[in-house]
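User: Sequence in, structure out. Go.
Assistant: Echoing your sequence, followed by the structure tokens.
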Amino acid sequence: MNVQIPQPASQTPSPAPKRRRLNSQKVIVVLSTIMALQMTSYVMILPLFARRFNEFGAGVEALGISAMAFALTSTLSAPFMGALADRFGRRPLILGSLAAYIAAFFGFLLAPSAGVLIVLRGLAGAFTAGLIPAVTGLATDLAPEDRRAQWIGFVIGGASFGWIAGPIAGGMIFDRWGYSTALIVSIVMAIITFFVALLAVPESQPAPARPFPGAKRSEIESQRKNIKVFLFNFRSTLPNSLSAFILLLFICFAVLFAWAFMEPEFMFYAYNDLGWSSSMLGLVMSTYGVAMMLGEFAFGRFSDRLGRKPIIIIGLMLFSAQFIGLAFFRSYIVIAASFLIAGMGNALFDPALTASILDISPQEHRARILGIKYATGSLGNVLGPALVVLVTSSINANGIFLIAVGVVLLAIVGGLTIKTETQPSKKEPDPDVVCMKTSSSQSID
């Protein structure tokens, strides 16, 4: 005989909220669109910082310091942002990061000096670091395990669209109307992106359990325990295959270090040595974006079918083409072609690298792990400009480009030694339908 034992009124859970169902593939399209709009608005002004620092009477060193400031604050902020996305949900972090981009663009527009612009880029790095971990975490929540790299590639492919439209548009607007107009266009696009996210981005994490009436004290004690768990059991949130995880992080660090190390020199080299206009520089960067976007849409599932490791290695080899092109050639067409090849390489290794990290990560801590990945890459973005500031007076542009080639070769060597295996995790969510809010009532038979 089954006997239902009634619970006291003070311990009866709140009624279960109505479950909301979403089509996962539609959400992925929304995320890809948001990344396309946001990256376009940001990359539109990225090549123009060199021009702006020139107007302030500054040079490669100031541009390098500003890039380092952005990357340093991103590095420090990203792991915490990833943890917040795991605890409080993906949607709040996405909306907060997009709002921070809007504020940053207004600051870039109004900055009166090189020093202020550097400080603003540092603040922007701190408050926008949650976007990529949260977006990638949301995409991972929705993706079937056997299509994880493909779906991540689709979202990143949206960001790659920004590398196509952004540099061309920014260069043309600057050449015709100046820096302020380019910033205003970026601000408008960032505002549009925020409202698209506000209206269309859902939450994939279960809603936090609603407390019983009069249970505030136990809730506070529970939060204190959670903080202690976060501080003292951090290792349990990391992948079991720690050596593979470290090697994957090293690759992430190396490729971003190589780019960040040569980027400030590349901008001034293009303008001063090669005599390019802002539109010409924008077109080369857009060539990279075209290859990256098409590659991520077309090749995203390669590592799901052929294995992560070979795709990462091939991608890294192709990625080095841009540095080789800059080191050995001055022809605009040849350099543009080298960026095209490098973009294809990025499209191959980046989704495979991210999927490799997620394969060995505990399901309940994926956004936090992605935050660590983002922070590691940001560390490369910190040290790259810092080193180029130190050596720019003693090493010419070709030497800097060759050092970048060497760093990528080290990443390839690291990739060759990786041994990965999938981490056991909890059951994956239904790939087609995600329940947005869950709760359960308790009974005793």
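User: And one key feature?
Assistant: Residues 242-273 form the longest helix (32 residues).
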